[in-house]
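Bumping with the actual sequence this time:
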Amino acid sequence: MINIIGWAPDSHEPSPETSFLNQFISPFGTIESGDKNYPRVRSGHRCFTDNDYLYLIGGYTHQIRRGSIFKEIWAMSLATFEWRRYEVIGELPDTLASFAIIQVFPYSKTFILFGGSGTAFGTSSSNRFYFVGVDNNNCCVESYELKVGGDIPLPKYGHAMCAGEVRGKYYIIGGTEGTSFDFDVHALTMRANPEATTENEKYTWHCELITTNQGFPGRYRLEATYDEKNHCLLFFGGGSNEEVHGFEKIIKLDLKTKISSAVSTIPDSRNGYPQARRCHTIARRSTKVIMTGGIFHRENGLDVLVHSDVWIFEMTDYSWEKYEHSLPRAVYFHDAAITEEGCMMVFGGAHELTPTAPRNNKLYFAWFGIPRLQTFALEALRKKYPQMFSGLYSGNLQPSGVLDVFNTFCKPGKISEEERNIVQRGRIPFHEHEDRSRFFLNGNSEDYAVRHQVADPEPLQRRRGQRQQGRHEQILQNNGDIRGPLRRMFDQFLRGVGAGDENNGEGEAGEEREVNAQLRRENIDNIINEINEIIAERVDREDPQ
């Protein structure tokens, strides 16, 4: 299990957006690079989130055979922060470095993958489209190549992708095949296919060239987003081997006129503009574009500077604000994703401009919004029942399913059939011993097992009924044990009412009198119990433990 981590969490000053979250953001721990159950160091990968998981796709490393592509997809549960490598059903390309992805719908479990490069950068680029869907219950992804008509972009890598003005419209911007750099903008359109006979034919796909952005230099490793207010695309940074582009002005593509122009932005009042860069990343939340890291260099790779700063671009007025905290280490070729709550996650990347530059597999968190109560509740459960949040089974736990699994792990007795289905949903066999120790085996590794020792849960303290009797009885004793006097007082009162009735000629027979006496005793007990409850509740309010 890894800790929730954040950059410089202990240095946060009072802030309405982040500092109050420090109670559950703690410094990150060292991750062993040899851990088979954690992604290895890499760069050029892509990330996305569906609010239940953070997904990591592909990437490049120089540590294996002088350079290798990771043809894999990992998922990390946002409930337990444990990773699992997913099985791939179908085909994934070999060109999973500096490719681009876009989710079909915001926070969906399906995405489109386009382009990318293999290890032979400049000679192994791709222009293929893939449709990939995630199946969390079975810990796998299904992928197949799309048949796309129209003007297909040339093979490239280092391009950007973003969603467009309507669902099913996506844009591909810029990129390189290794030696030349373009600034082309293509639109990919998804439409429902009424004649579909298979799942793969559910949609039709068409691509068209929108503009080549003549007059602006080509660029790769840029970022892009759609501006809903002005119906345009905004392009951030990027560059080539000879230059990188800054942010005093950004390029805007009007989607009505299909004309691009440079528009001025407003600097931060104290820090000015971000320095020019490429290989940075952005995460979009509402009207804020959060930019992290990247690399600056002059012609021929001189004056290289890798960035660790974080900037926020406000789309309502095109203004820049430098975030008060930075990444722990300068990085580029990394990637980031952000949840609807505003939890941004940054993973991996490189630290130097060399072929064998050191890379990392660290994961950083930062909050740019206020979490839901569920998030705080999860952290409380994590601290109270750590055994529930460790082990490879937990890698398949979704935040929305924590209550089900909590009930499974944290109660005595055998696992019911319903609970067994919850556990086996990820195809993970388990065994249960008489002492309720449970062993969950990882389906991908026969030699890995996690033991969960289930303790009896602590009894709940109820507001009424079961109380800490010793304390309240002591209070009653200190007040002279009022139960006896109360019983005599109410008995005399109720008997007096009966005597009056007898004097009116409505006396009771012997059997009826005995029944009424029993009813009086029950009424007295009920009244006394109610009084004790009132006293106990008042004691709780005035003298809480």
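The tokens above came from a reply further down the thread. Confidence is low (pLDDT under 50) at residues 1-34, 426-469, 497-508.
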